[in-house]
Amino acid sequence: MVGVNKTVFIIVDGMADLPIKELGNKTPLDYAIKNNLHKFLRHSELAYPTVLGKMAPQSDAGVMADLGYDPIKYSTGRGWFECLGLGMKPETGQLSIRINFGSVYNGMLKDVRVYMQEDELEELSNEINDRVKISADFDFKAGVGYRAGLVLRNGGGRFSHFVSNNEPGYTAKFFGNKIKLSFATEINNRRIQKIKAIRNEAAYTAEVLNDFILKASKVIKSSKVYNERVKKRLPVPNYLFLRDAADSDPGLEDINRKYGRKWVTVAGMPLEKGIALSAGMSVLNVNENKNIKEDFEEKIKKITYAISKFDAVYVHIKQTDSLSHLGKFIDKYAVIEAMDKIIISGLSRVMDPNKDTLVLTCDHATSSKLKRHINSNIPVMIANDRFRSHTSFDESSCRTDGNKSIKKAVDIMPFVMKL
Ligand SMILES: [Zn+2]
After folding, report:
1. Could you tell me the distance, in angstroms and rounded to a whole number, from the CA of residue 317 to the centre of ligand 1?
2. How many angstroms does the Cα of residue 56 sit away from the middle of ligand 1?
3. In angstroms, what is the span from residue 233 Cα to ligand 1's centroid?
4. Which CATH superfamily is domain 7-73+252-417 in?
5. Domain definitions of the chain by residue range
6. What does the pLDDT look like over 287-317, one tens digit per residue?
7. Residue 375 neighbours by CB under 8 Å, 6+ apart
């Protein structure tokens, strides 16, 4: 529609970082050359809000907060969004869970992520779906890389989300009866733990999940994918790590009605698609299994289309977080530079600087040195004609020059939607 102000809201996964010695004590965001972003900085507001205070958020909490939904008020467990984003249609009363294909050796954790080719992951997931027999009906579906989703549909008892994760490094926390979030914690004990019932009502759920893990690992080890990878001396998955089981719909208010704008997301990862779907957004899917240049070129094409058909576009960019977890800070700033060259420059051509708003932020900070999420505040740029000029966009300029009324990540969206 001509005349309507458009909003493009980009969440760059784990973009914020700590200063890195090898980068001259700059963060990757600070170090990256961002010539195209400077055009937007000429009229911009900066902010440096916290996401979850002292707690280091996962992506689900960070994205919810950025989109204006307080995780402490809504989150029932990340598994809901993951399975929704995978097209598994979870329902309240069923149990939806995020899965990692990983490996163990002698009862000890070896790797929480074993990456596979798309067809391998698909084949192995289908085999688990077909061959594992437990006391509940379930669906198991491949995700991206090393990820999958599990939905327990009906069983011999009621499902409850009051269970622990068996993925080390993520601890489930509960807030009242409904709210559940996981937090990244350091892995001190590498011995594989069973899923535990946190409340008595979850005893049946824990029992079914432990049975599932045992039987699925047997299916994995007898599969063609496993044996071929052993032959090729590739890393082999032999275990499943489960986390963030959810037993109910988080009930996010419809974002289109809330702000009177028609939203769409351009995303490829199930979690982000799931959150967008939950918020009532339309989805323009992108395939995440490509190189960065191709990925960004596809994204800017889809964003350009989205701007022509919708009022507001939420864009997810994944690579920055994955690279931080691998400690690759050089590749991380290179991704930020590629984003500037391809996506931000593309936006400078299609957005109207007199009317439209570009938001650039992240869901949480991920330290490339510590290789995990941290509780640092997040840098935010809100580019709109009404604001004054800034010369840099990074953690320290946002800390110094940031709008103090945006204290928390959940404050960003109401601020932006009033422009
Ligand atoms: Zn994230």
Report:
1. 9
2. 11
3. 31
4. Alkaline Phosphatase, subunit A (3.40.720.10)
5. 7-73+252-417, 81-246
6. 876 789 999 999 999 999 999 999 999 999 9
7. 50, 51, 52, 53, 54, 55, 56, 57, 365
